[in-house]
Amino acid sequence: MIEFEVDDAEQTRAIGRALASHLRAGDLVMLHGELGAGKTTLAQGIGQGLHVRGRVSSPTFIVARVHPSLIGGPDLIHADAYRITDLDDLETLDLDSTLAGSVTLVEWGEGKTEALSDQRLEIDVDRPHGGEADHEDGVIDLEHMDDGHRVVVLHPFGTRWDGEFAHLGDEVVALTAEAATPTDE
Ligand SMILES: Nc1ncnc2c1ncn2[C@@H]1O[C@H](COP(=O)(O)OP(=O)(O)OP(=O)(O)O)[C@@H](O)[C@H]1O
Ligand SMILES: [Mg+2]
Could you tell me the pTM of the whole model? Predict the structure, then answer.
């Protein structure tokens, strides 16, 4: 188990970018966490790190989207199993046929996609302070509901990940600093 605490969305993306350099074809990553926790935000960082085409976004009608690699690496399959309620629907997604050749990321897959791989990486994105609104003189302050604080916890399953994340903390720090450094572009 590896735990990170972050203060904003860009830091969550930095975790995704750092993680991406450890991912290869055949890997299954399941993202858990409540609505708006930051699962897609983390997936965006993974997409950046893998150098795939298109910005990873929240699928509305499409449940799975393929982001082809731009660098000859594995494609990214980003799936949202939120609306998947039965096994038939899950089979329609056909994730098992693309698994071996891609990096597969699934949001809301809990209790649904574990069987795809016993070597999976499960990640919890937690919003410890919840979505409590500030109340001031009876006015609910929606703008300040989200303090940006998140706890991201990696749960590796299987021997696939042995030793893989030994330096992940340093890599995340390096990539966070990189994101914050202005460039001349
Ligand atoms: N530290 C943080 N990490 C990730 N997102 C953050 C953070 N702080 C604030 N946010 C904001 O919280 C929102 C997270 O939305 P996101 O779509 O990533 O959540 P999600 O878990 O995928 O939700 P859903 O269950 O609806 O798919 C974004 O608006 C993001 O900017
Ligand atoms: Mg999402």
Answer: 0.91
Distance CA 149, CA 129 (A): 8
User: Could you give the domains of the chain?
Assistant: 2-180 (3.40.50.300)
Give tens-digit pLDDT for 36-83.
999 999 999 999 999 999 999 987 667 899 999 999 999 999 999 998
From 149, 159, 152, 105, select the one nearest 129 (Cα to Cα).
149
Distance 128 CA to ligand 1 centre (A): 13
Q: Whose CA is nearest to atom 14 of ligand 1?
A: 38
- How confident is residue 177, by pLDDT bands cut at 50, 70 and 90? confident
Q: Whose CA is nearest to atom 7 of ligand 1?
A: 9
